[in-house]
Amino acid sequence: MATIYLVEGPVGAGKSTFAARLSVTHAAPRLILDEWMATLFRADRPSDGFVDWYVERNRRCIEQIWHVACDMIDTGTNVVLELGLVQRQDRSDFYARVDASGTTLKVYVLDAPEHVRRQRVHTRNVEKGNTFKMEVSDEIFALANRMWEEPDDSEAAERDIEFVDTRA
User: CATH assignment of 3-165, given 2.60.40.1120, 3.40.50.720, 3.40.50.300, 3.30.70.330?
Assistant: First the structure.
């Protein structure tokens, strides 16, 4: 049976780089929320009211990514997902979908100290390398950083979660 490899963590933790390695290791295509958001909506991003605008489009993209992932799983194909499920309730809702589908799930939660992550984001903004999808301002970094809720003991006990320190 195919497996969903879910990669989560705060902004700048190295999720896209890690997901690329997982993709090769498990012969699994990647479905990355930021890529979908940037491709579909970057040109429409407002200067005001960004949070409400983002939340609605985020929800729609995750819904479509889920449908595509299910099609892959149904064909026996592993899939790597990076969905930006930064809050416990969002992950819980996703876990319920996975459980209902009967699919195997492996979760990787990445993290590094905030100053390391902030520097990575600044570097990515300037270099615009492989993992660059959109500019992340200091304000957006701070907002996303505040929103991140690390899995608690209950979530960690109920799920196959591997915590990965990406500071190096």
Answer: 3.40.50.300
